[in-house]
Amino acid sequence: MRQRAKKLRRPGRLALIGSLVIALVGAWSGATFAAFTSQANNPGNTITAAPDWEAPTITAKTITKAAGGVGGYIAQNSNFYVYANVTDGGNPASGVASVDLTATLPTYGAVTLPLVAGTYNVGGVAFNYRSAVQTMPPMAAQTIAYNIVADDNAGNSRTSAGSVVVDNTGGTATTVQTANGGATAGRPEAGDTITYTFSEPVEPMSIMAAWTNPLASQNATVSINNNAVGGNDSVTVGGANLGTVNLGGARYVTATRTYTNSVMTVSGNTLTIVLGTASGAGTTSGNTNMSWASSNLVDDRAGNAFSGNTAAETGGGDREF
Length: 321
Description:
It is a single chain. By secondary structure, the chain is mainly β. The protein has helices at about 15-30, 205, and strands spanning about 55-65, 75, 80-85, 95-105, 110-120, 125-130, 135, 140-150, 155-165, 175-180, 195-200, 220-225, 235, 245, 255-265, 270-275, 275-280, 285-290, 290-295, 310, 320. The chain has 2 domains: about 55-165, Coagulation Factor XIII, Chain A, domain 1; about 175-320, no CATH class. The protein is built from 2 helices and 21 strands. It is elongated and about 80 Å long. The protein starts with 12 loop residues before the first helix and ends with a strand.
C-alpha cells in the first residue's frame, strides 16, 4: 500500500518571533559600539524658543485727578491721568506692545487713549503705565465705564473693565464731636479725640499736602488756643485746612497748649484726630456746645471745593474731651 505523505506545517508566528529574537541577540553579543561624545552644536537640528501664548496681566487701573490723591473720581473740566499696572507672561514673555484706554463718552463718542511705560505711585498703589494729562469735557454727574486693553508682541490681548465717577458738586461740613480717651473726662489730654464730619468723603491731600496716601494716617500738631477774654477757647490743627473749632464759651486751657504727634485718620465722611503729647495740662470744664468754622480749601475726592460753612455740634451741650 502506498503511504500518504504527511503534510508539512508552516512554523507558527510565535516560533518566527522567537527565532528572530535569538538571531538579534546573537548579533548584538558580538557587536561593538563607539562611545558617545558631547558636541557644541548639531548642524542637523535647531532649537527655537517656545511661543508666547499668554496674554498680559492687568493687576491695577484707575483714573485720578492730575493733582493726585484718591482715585476713581473726577470733575468735569478738570485734568486727570489714567494709570494701569501691566505685566506680560509667557515662556519666554514677548513683552508688552501697547496699553490703551477705550471708552464711549456721552455726546463725544468713542475714544482711545494710549498709555506709556513709567514708574508711578498713586494713593499708595504702584503703576507702570500712565496716559498723558487729559481734561474731562463738560458733562453731567454720572458713572462712565471704560476698558484697559493690553497687547503683547506675540499678538495676545487682555481687556480689564473699570469705571470712573464724574462728580461736579462739592460738600459741606456737618458736625464736630469730641470724646474722652484719657484719664479725666472734660479735660483735653493725650488719647482724647476730635471728629470732624463732612457731607461726603474728603480728599486727604486737600487737608494736608503731605497726606499722599489716603489709606494711611497722618501726624499733626493740634493747638487748643487760650482766649483770656470770655474763656472762649478754640481748636486749630497746624498745617491742615480744617478751619477752627469754637469750644462753646468754655475754658479748657489757662494757656495755649499744643498736642504733638496727634494722629489723623479718614474713614468715609469723617476725619478723626487722636490727641498726642500735651505741652501742659488743661483744665476741666462743664457742658458746652461747639461750632466748627470749616475751610473752603478742602476738596472732595473729585476735586470739588467744600463750602467752608459753619457747622454746629449736634446732640446739644455736653462735656468736651
